[in-house]
Amino acid sequence: MISRIDQDHSRFREIVRGKVRQNLRKYMSRGDIIAPQGKGTVKIPMPQITIPRFTFGEKGGGGVGQGEGEPGDPVDGKEGQQSGKGKAGQGEGDKGLDVEVSLEELAEILGEELGLPRIEPRGVDSLETRKDRYVGLRSTGPESLRSFKATYKRALRRQIAMGTYDPARPVIVPIREDRRYRSWRTDPRPHSNAVIIYMMDVSGSMGDEQKEIVRIESFWIDTWLRSQYKGIESRYIIHDATARLVEREVFFRTRESGGTMISSAYRLCNELIDNEYNPELWNIYAFHFSDGDNWSVDDTSNCISLLRAELFPKVNQFGYGQVESPYGSGQFIKDLRAAFGKEEVLVTSEIKGRDEIMDSIRDFLRRGR
Q: What predicted TM-score, i.e. pTM, was given to this entire model?
């Protein structure tokens, strides 16, 4: 039977879930919930949730509408008393509440709100790991697995039954039939492996606001893909005129300047896949974020050749997100669309500001690849 407190807790969680869905676009645009708090959870700031209830007034305060009075008189009759400091304001007070939500539940909310399909891994997506578990005892086996306790108990039981056990001289001598060995069972554990490779332009035209948009988008992409795969890795590449593989913290905090050569990132991404992620065993997702400004037409041609010949055949999906910048030309997304048309592996998205992050994530994830 469900207790009253469990019912109240379930109702509270449903209210929280509804609030998160209702304000999901705001949370995405502000980046309020992208810092993990503890293992597998985030804290979400939301308005105070209260349950309506009656409260009693002070004793002797009089009935409703009784007594004489003039407009503007204090209701409680305590004229001249004031509480608080500072000037009066028109805004509502800050009644913030931090609610902890698991990343798994957050992914469910994201999927429901954006109408995302479950991902169908391609190719040989299910890898089988094997784990040995000790499940019992048997009379044969290697000496390294002999159970001293089980062997001793069986020898003791045998000697007592035969009348050879002497309490004054409690010597237990196991024979071959007394020996017991731990037995094991090998359990196959299927799981799908996936890797997400993030690439970001960190040249002089990509400012802090553009990088923050990339940070928010990558968190939500990570959250959804991790809900679809048991084994998943994330790798990070930054580039200006050259590309390098970095850790997550460096990816989001790097301040660079200089020109842009996008092909350097695609070339490094391809080398990473060839060296560490066999496409027959891994589901591979690549996402590149830039302001669309490339070094030259020749380098754009190199990018198109790399995508067509090397990357597209190896990845489940390649996403290109173009973040609007006052310094970037925005030309690269036009070149990609002109070169590849309706190529299924490629997904492009224009992100003009934080308010369009939610729509961009829907663009990237709605195909279920």
A: 0.65
